[in-house]
Write a structure and sequence with these properties.
Length: 549
């Protein structure tokens, strides 16, 4: 008897219950319940949900949305040609900058980040997790299928510190690495039935796939315990949700909408195949025949219409006529006998289904799915009713949908780059690069260039306003630069210094009288000196001891 009759796998991730009360039952055991809530809920555990996300990825809209998010979030720098950028918290020296840039290129080249970063980001957003095993000697990263992670051992006595990952079917080349965990220490971790997390005296917790203590599932020979310090777990989890230590896929909130859209698409296809073709209605005249005779006559006429007579020759040499199925070809004519009174059989056409072009309900669920994925419709090449591509914003202006999408991509970048930043700093320590790790951070490049478009339009509007008020004599140039151009005092002084440098002017009071007005400094009266009250203090004689001049 199979063990599945008594056990079921569970990976420790709580799922919301569809029961409405203690008296409610599952749809499989109650004839009054519906399967629809269970269909909308999806698969019960983590490993099965990965297959669910693969099925969703086969949808064209979901696939395009995931590609768009990954492409916008993993842009390459035009100068370094790398998907990462180093953000300095302090002013680095020239040597530190060169060493960090060179080390970053080596790290990206060793792990093939230029080719793999798109798929890493896309799979992390799609599944919620991506795992890599680090070679302790070369610090090269090897990808591990997250569905192969059976359980994670967590030490709650140390602030929920992850001790080990149990990975099944690990590659033999990875098993040869010195990355296995201390199984004697981890064997003290308790297991409860159904995989419910349990605590022991050592305050260790195991998020397993459902293995009762003492059974053969608790010590699977195909499962390898990997020390957590050699595992890079890129996740979308912040550590404060119920799915930790695993992340939540961005496809999880839109699964219900996806299923509704899928069911609606199937119903539309079925309607067009089954109900859209027109049908023929045959009225067969049976006269005054009894009921059983009328039924026999109707069946005979039906068989005659549905059959085709084909002459053939048997092996004995006799000529016979075989009957073949005829699916009522529209190219054939039908002949029925009719009496003098006009009685007889007739054929009428039953029109097919109507409203074949009404797909507003499908558009509604498709737009709802795109809103859940947070991708603007204009990015997916939407078409309006006239067949022309539409744009939901003016050129050079970032609309609210684009702004929200940019912020969403930046939030995903911050979650994903955290583990990669730690790994890069450990790579520097392994290579002997002695640079303070808190002085810099690894980050993705800026999402697209909507900030440039926005700043360009803001500058254009500001310059137009400044030009219109610049000629006013009653407004100070310095005040206009601060008020309408938004320049600070430091920027005004910097502009003045650069203006003098470009024109080789040492004294701001020399040179063109009109030139310095643009930077907020005006020269004195022509041909005169700075004076006070009309008196020249240089021409005054010093007073004597008595105070006379």
């Amino acid at each position: 008897m199979t063990w599945k009759k008594y056990f079921k796998t569970y990976d420790g991730v709580p799922r919301p219950s569809v029961d409405t009360g203690p008296a409610s039952n599952n749809a499989s055991s109650s004839k009054y319940s519906s399967w629809l809530p269970e269909v909308y809920m999806g698969q019960p555990n983590r490993a099965q949900r990965y297959g669910q996300y693969d099925q969703m990825d086969m949808d064209s809209e979901v696939n395009a949305a995931l590609d768009t998010i990954a492409e916008f979030s993993t842009l390459f720098s035009e100068t370094t040609k790398l998907p990462f950028n180093i953000q300095y918290n302090d002013d680095p020296s020239f040597t530190e900058n060169e060493v960090l840039q060179k080390s970053l290129r080596q790290w990206c080249s060793m792990n093939k980040m230029n080719q793999r970063i798109f798929r890493i980001f896309r799979n992390t957003v799609k599944y919620g997790d991506q795992l890599f095993v680090r070679d302790p000697e070369t610090y090269k990263l090897y990808w591990v299928n997250p569905a192969k992670v059976e359980k994670v051992v967590v030490n709650e006595g140390k602030g929920k510190k992850i001790e080990a990952y149990y990975i099944k079917d690990l590659d033999i080349n990875m098993q040869s690495l010195n990355i296995t965990a201390d199984t004697v220490k981890l064997a003290q971790t308790g297991h409860q039935k159904m995989g419910i997390p349990s605590s022991t005296a050592g305050m260790q917790q195991s998020y397993s796939a459902g293995a009762p203590e003492g059974s053969r599932f608790a010590h699977d020979v195909t499962t390898t315990a990997i020390d957590a310090k050699h595992v890079i777990h890129v996740s979308l989890s912040e550590g404060i949700d119920q799915y930790w230590p695993f992340g939540t896929s961005m496809l999880e909130p839109v699964f219900k909408v996806y299923k509704q859209k899928e069911l609606l698409e199937d119903s539309i296809i079925i309607y067009r195949v089954q109900r859209a073709p027109e049908r023929r209605v045959f009225y067969i005249d049976v006269g005054d025949m009894p009921t059983h005779k009328a039924r026999q006559h109707l069946e005979r006429i039906k068989n005659e219409i549905h059959q085709r007579r084909i002459p053939s020759k048997t092996g004995g040499g006799a000529n016979v006529v075989d009957s073949a199925y005829n699916p009522l070809s529209i190219m054939e004519d039908y002949f029925f006998a009719q009496t003098a009174e006009g009685r007889g059989s007739k054929v009428e056409t039953l029109p097919g289904g109507e409203n074949l072009g009404e797909i507003d309900d499908l558009k509604f669920f498709n737009d709802k799915l795109l809103r859940g994925l947070r991708v603007p419709p204009s990015y997916l090449g939407g078409m309006d009713a006239n067949g022309s591509a539409f744009n939901d914003g003016r050129t050079g202006t970032a609309m609210i949908q684009e702004f929200r999408f940019t912020k969403y991509c930046e939030r995903l970048q911050q979650l994903i780059v955290e583990e990669l930043d730690k790994e890069f700093k450990m790579f520097l320590k392994h290579r002997g690069v002695l640079i303070e790790s808190s002085s810099f951070d690894l980050s993705f490049n800026i999402v697209q260039n909507f900030g440039k478009y926005r700043q360009a339009e803001v500058d254009q509007v500001a310059m137009n306003v400044f030009t219109s008020v610049e000629a006013a004599d009653y407004i100070s140039k310095r005040f206009a630069m601060k008020r309408f151009l938004g320049l600070s005092e430091e920027e005004i002084l910097e502009n003045e210094a650069l203006w003098k440098e470009e024109r080789n002017v040492d004294d701001p009071l020399q040179g063109s009288d009109d030139g310095l007005k643009g930077v907020g400094a005006s020269p004195g009266p022509a041909g005169g000196d700075f004076d006070a009250g009309g008196e020249d203090f240089d021409d005054l004689e010093e007073p004597d001891e008595e105070g006379s001049v």
